[in-house]
């Protein structure tokens, strides 16, 4: 994965800020920085450069008073699967637990 997510950016971060940070760290990029409010994306030439960028910059470089987070960019579909705990097939399960007694607290434990 060569695409990087750069997070924890200030609202006034611009592409030239990121260009100079990557240039100073001697990390090449293979395209423009796509900057949104609070985050950005960029492509590295290959996986080894992406890993070097993560290692050199994530949590170590400050931009406008905030430490940048640099990590592999994960497509939205995969992020959603990871956050819902779904299986590879796209299904996930919920377990409903019922019939448990209600426990109340009032200075000391009172059982129902």
Summarize, please.
By secondary structure, the chain is an alpha+beta fold. Helices cover 27% and strands 24% of the residues.
For the largest beta-sheet, the strand count, sense and barrel status come to: 4 strands, antiparallel
Instruction: Give the structural class.
Output: alpha+beta
Regions with little confidence, pLDDT below 50 for 5+ residues = none
Q: Please name the fourth-level CATH homologous superfamily.
A: RRM (RNA recognition motif) domain
- Summed up, the helix count is 3
DSSP, total strands: 8
Regarding CATH, which class? Answer: Alpha Beta
Sequence of secondary-structure elements: EHEEHEEEHEE
- The shape, in one word, is elongated
Q: How large is the radius of gyration?
A: 22 Å
Average per-residue pLDDT, rounded, comes to 84
CATH T-level topology: Alpha-Beta Plaits
Helix content: 25-40%
Range of strand content: 15-25%
Domain RRM: 2-75
InterPro entries: Nucleotide-bd_a/b_plait_sf, RBD_domain_sf, RRM_dom
Keywords: RNA-binding
Pfam families: RRM_1
């Amino acid at each position: 994965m060569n695409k990087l997510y750069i997070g924890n950016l200030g609202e006034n971060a611009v592409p030239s800020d990121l260009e100079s940070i990557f240039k100073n760290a001697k990390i090449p990029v293979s395209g423009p920085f796509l900057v949104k409010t609070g985050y950005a994306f960029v492509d590295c030439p290959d996986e080894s450069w992406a890993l070097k960028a993560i290692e050199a910059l994530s949590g170590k470089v400050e931009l406008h008073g905030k430490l940048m987070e640099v990590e592999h960019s994960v497509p939205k579909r995969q992020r959603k699967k990871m956050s819902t705990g779904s299986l590879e097939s796209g299904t996930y399960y919920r377990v409903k637990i019922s019939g448990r007694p209600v426990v109340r607290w009032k200075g000391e434990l009172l059982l129902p």
